Amino acid sequence: MKILDWYILKRYIFTFLMMLLLFIPIGITVHLAEKIGKILENEVPFAEVMLYFLDFTIYFAHLLFPLFLFLSVIWFTSKLANNTEVIAFLSSGVSFTRFLRPYLIGAFVVAILSIVLGLYLAPSASEGFNDFSYKYLKKGRTAVENTNVYRQLNDNDIIYVSSFDVKNKIGRNFVFEHFEDNKLVYKIDANNIKYIEEDSIYRLTNYVKRKVGEVNDIIEESKSKDTIFSFDVDDLTPVIYIAETLGYKELNEFIEKEELRGSSNIGRYKLVKYRKWSLPVSVFILTIIAVAVSSIKRRGGMGVNLAVGICIAMVFVFFDKIFGVMAEQSDFPPVIAVWFPNFIFGILALYLLRNAKR
């Protein structure tokens, strides 16, 4: 690599890191100011608070990676343009494509970092962030996926709960039905089902088991019944954020299992899966757009470039959110919802790059 490449690459990485160091503390301060009352009210241990904000940092840094990068590239490239350094580079015989190379190398480094965060660090941070939120900040609320959950576990077993309290691991109005050769063999009803984690058992309240006989049914009743089931506690109803807390391999297995059960939330889970790969790609697209927009010296200076960049960033976020909601709430394909913004902005990047070369 030549001096020009190292010069731009160092500015690329340094400005991006500085952007993270500037905005993340601001985000933490605003979030802390909003939640400090509930944290003090619930007397949260200091160690848990610090761990929560570490998870908060990783969680949101991963989500906003492309936007932080986009603004940082516009910032330092605009400074190069205002100092006529870009003109000097291009006037020396360097083509615009050659000028873009160190930016793409920097984008590759950031994309690798985004993949590592998405596959390994972000899932753990998401779990810690959401668990803390529901434990202390959203007290009285539960991370319930939905009510009236009906699930077919396999060819023979079906379960139902009207609601599920994730914090206390309690399901209400529990029903378990076992079939053989399409005939009901027995049915279990209970007002509540509670998972006892220490003993890995389920405790049923007002337990009633009806075995279907050829002539008469056999009924077994008990005020409380401890038993074991073949399903996991998450099978009752996964929490809203469960897909975000799983590693890539576990997420694929979870999606496959949920598809077999006919889950109505497959779109949400697949969005999380596809975004692990769409975010790194968006890093390259937004880098090209940022360079094409900010490498021109304008009469208004850096302010104009930043204004244009912020507008593009807001449109990108709008597309990402609107298509994400469509995939979650309808049958809109998640893969299209995730990749369509990249496709549109990829075309925009090629158009701007073509004009920038001129």
Explain how this protein is built:
- The structure is a single chain.
- Strand 5 and strand 6 form a beta hairpin.
- Strands 1, 2, 3, 4, 5, 6 and 7 form a 7-stranded antiparallel beta sheet that branches.
- The chain is of the alpha+beta class.
- It has 9 helices and 7 strands; from the N terminus they run αααααβββββββαααα.
- 61% of the residues lie in helices and 16% in strands.
- Helix 7 packs antiparallel against helix 8 (302-329).
- The two termini are 25 Å apart.
- The model has no long low-confidence stretch (mean pLDDT 82).
- It is elongated and about 95 Å long.
- It folds into 2 domains: 3-139 and 265-357, no CATH class; 149-237, no CATH class.
- It has helices spanning 3-41, 46-63, 65-82, 85-91, 96-137, 248-260, 266-294, 302-329, 334-357; strands at 149-152, 157-161, 163-165, 170-180, 183-196, 201-211, 218-227.
List keywords for this structure.
358 residues; alpha+beta; 7 strands; 61% helix
